[in-house]
Write a structure and sequence with these properties.
Blueprint (H helix, E strand, L loop, with lengths): L8 E3 L8 E7 L12 H5 L4 E6 L17 H12 L2 H4 L15 E6 L1 H12 L4 E7 L10 H11 L3 H11 L8 H11 L4 H13 L5 H4 L7 E6 L7 H10 L3 E6 L6 H4 L1 H13 L3
Parallel strand pairs: 2-3, 2-4, 4-5, 5-6, 6-7
Antiparallel strand pairs: 1-3
């Protein structure tokens, strides 16, 4: 429970590691924690605990229609979620372990990247590193594919959703049709369309001021984007890289908006090297 709402999250099992790091994965618009596939589990060979959350309004979490899904609202939700001590505890942890004293590493995709950056801006002392994957946050207005995505979410026929998801990929042949069915099932849940539309409008018509981003320039950041991303242009990731002085940019060829689904092994290796580097 976070602020009286029930929140779903996935937690990777502890592997043979003693490196305790709070690592949080935040998905994108209309998605869920399942979208990360096996990457959180694979990373748990190096760090624990690793948690992937369903944002409020999405996935299996509550979807209240009484709130405005602004970036500020999501940022507060994530900060409150991080503060829930039981999320980070493992059965073998001693009572003396102070899980909330550790800084958090946040991995955010698309809308999740925008939220992660906002969390770092508002509470930079609690964030150790950032991984921003095809992050939004620089949009002055929705791209044509984002508009098409909104239409598919509000009118979720199989063909509408399938067509949009194919356009999001570098290689449309890689589309798993089960993802289409899962999206349609989620978006038809009570409150889901309201949450999607509200989050869409708030994240595509308001952007991060560069002066805000400059406040987190001392946090190491890995910026990943698909070279063929039609949803959030590569230029946006380049802008993040330009402003964040301790950032590195990885442009992944032949991938679209979610490169970790098209080239999971490559993305995992890029992330592993960055996260296990002590710099």
């Amino acid at each position: 429970m976070v602020n009286d709402f029930e929140i779903r999250y996935l937690k990777s099992e502890k592997r043979n590691t003693s490196k305790k790091k709070n690592v949080l994965f935040i998905h994108g618009l209309g998605s869920s924690s399942d979208r990360w596939l096996d990457i959180p589990d694979a990373l748990s060979r190096y760090y624990y605990p690793i948690v992937a959350v369903d944002l409020i309004g999405f996935g299996g979490s509550d979807k209240p229609v009484t709130v405005d899904y602004t970036i500020e609202y999501f940022s507060k939700f994530i900060r409150d979620f991080i503060d829930c001590k039981q999320i980070w505890r493992n059965d073998e942890d001693s009572d003396d372990d102070d899980d909330n004293s550790r800084k958090t590493i946040i991995v955010g995709h698309s809308l999740g990247g925008y939220i992660a950056a906002k969390v770092a801006i508002e509470d930079q002392d609690q964030i150790e590193k950032l991984v921003l994957i095809d992050s939004s946050g620089m949009l002055k207005k929705p791209t044509p594919l984002l508009e098409q995505y909104l239409n598919a979410a509000l009118n979720p026929s199989f063909e509408n959703v399938k067509n949009v998801f194919e356009l999001m990929l570098g290689n449309p042949a890689l589309l798993n049709l089960g993802i289409v069915d899962a999206f349609i099932k989620r978006i038809n849940l009570v409150g889901a369309k309201y949450a999607f539309k509200s989050a869409f409008e708030n994240s595509t018509k308001k952007y991060i001021e560069l002066s805000e981003l400059q406040r987190i320039e001392n946090i190491p950041a890995l910026i990943i984007c698909g070279a063929a991303d039609k949803l959030i242009p590569v230029s946006h990731s380049k802008q993040f890289n330009k402003v964040l002085k301790r950032s590195q940019l990885e442009i992944v060829e032949n991938t679209g908006h979610a490169p970790f689904t098209e080239k999971p092994s490559m993305i995992f290796d890029i992330m592993r090297i960055f996260l296990t580097n002590n710099k």
